[in-house]
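Cross-posted from the bioinformatics board.
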Amino acid sequence: MRILIVGGGGREHALAWRLTQEGHEIAGAPGNPGVGQLGPLFENVSDALRGFEPELVVIGPEDPLIGGMADELRQRGIPTFGPGGMGARLEASKAWSKKMMEEAGVPTAAATIHTDYQEACEEVAKRFASGRHVAIKASGAALGKGVILCGDELHARHALSRMLLDEEFGDAGRLVVVEDFLEGREFSILTVVSEQGLLSLPVAQDYKRVGDGDTGENTGGMGTYSPVPWVTAEMVEETEARIVRPIVDHLRAKGVPYSGVLFSGVMVVDGSPYCLEYNVRFGDPETQSVMRRVEGVGDLLWAAAQGEALPPVRVTEPAAVTVVAASAGYPATSQKGVPITLGEMPEGVVVFHAGTAMQDGQLVTNGGRVLAVSAVADDLEQARARAYAGMDQVAFAGKHFRSDIGH
Ligand SMILES: Nc1ncnc2c1ncn2[C@@H]1O[C@H](COP(=O)(O)OP(=O)(O)O)[C@@H](O)[C@H]1O
Ligand SMILES: [Mg+2]
C-alpha cells in the first residue's frame, strides 16, 4: 500500500519505519531526514496527494486533525486515518472533553468550568475547605503547559489569575477547568478506533520531566518503555470498558463518529482507572516504543480508515526502551544547526529523528527533542542496555538525555 504520513516528528518516523518494515511504501509531508531515508518527502499535503497518490493518509499531529484535515480528505474520497475536527475536540477543548466524559459516565475527577475569575476563586475555596486539592487546566491547547497542580488556595488563585485575568495562556486560558486533584499512578493507552470496534496497543510508559528521578521541567517526553508490568491485562480491559468504549459510543450517539487513535491518559486511584484526558493522536514518544514491538500496523490503520473490523496486531518483540536525546537548553530553549554524528548502532537499535534537518549534506539539530534511540530485546533490562549503548553513538554539542528510562 502507498501510505502518506502527515507530520514530521519522532512519532511519524516511527510509523513510517513500522510501515516500511511491513512492506508498504511511504511518503512524508513534511517528514524529516529520518522519514526521508524511507520514502519521498513533500512540502505539503496537496503536493503529496498529486505526486505520490497515496491509497491511505495517516495524520500524525493534533493540529491538522483539530483543523479538520481528516474531514477534508475523506470528502475527497481519500481513505484517511484520524478523527474529524468534531471528534478532535476531545483534545482541543478540555472543557468540552470533560462534558463528554460526564455525559458518557466515564470516571474522571469532579470538575467545574469557569470564565469568571471571582466565581472560579469561590469554587476553589470550597474545594480546599472540604480538604481537596485542585488541578487547574486551561481548556485550550497550551503546549503541555496548561495544567497547574495546586496544593494550597493561594497557589490556585494565582493560577486562575494567570489564566483568566492576565491572559498569560491567551485564548487557551479564557476557559478554565477546575478539578479535584487525584492521587495515584498514571499510565496512558493508545486505542485504535473504527466504526466496527476497538483495539488497544501494548502500553508504554512515558517520562515527562527533563531530569533523572522525575526532576526539573516538564517536556514533551524524554523517553518510554514497553511493556509496563504493573498495568495488567485486566486493567487494560477495565480501561477500555469504562474510559474508551463509553466515550466512543457516546460520541457516535451524538452524531460524531470517531475513528483513528484515541489516547487515554489514566490515573489509577484505589485500584480503579480515572480518565485525566483524551488526546486524538498517537503519543510521542510512546509510539516509538510501541511501533518497535508490533506488526500488522498497516492493515490495522487501513481497516480503521475504512470503518471495518480491526485485525489484531502481532506483538513480536517482548520489550522496547526509547531514550530521547535533547538539545542544549531544552525544554526552555533549543539550539538549531548543531552538527550531529551517528556511529554504528548496536543490534536491535533504531534511531528515530524528531528535531533534525539536513544542512549542506550534514545532519544538524533543528529542535528541542532531536532524536530518539529505540531498542528492542527479550526483556526490558537488555533493551535498556542496548538503548544506552546506542545513545553513546550519538554525538552533538549540548546533547542531554535521561539516564533512568525503563529503570
Ligand atoms: N485531576 C488531576 N489530579 C492529579 N494530577 C493531574 C490531574 N489532572 C492532570 N494531572 C497531572 O497533570 C498532567 C497533565 O494533565 P493533562 O490533563 O494530561 O493535560 P496535558 O497533557 O494537556 O498537559 C497529567 O499527566 C497528570 O500528571
Ligand atoms: Mg497529558
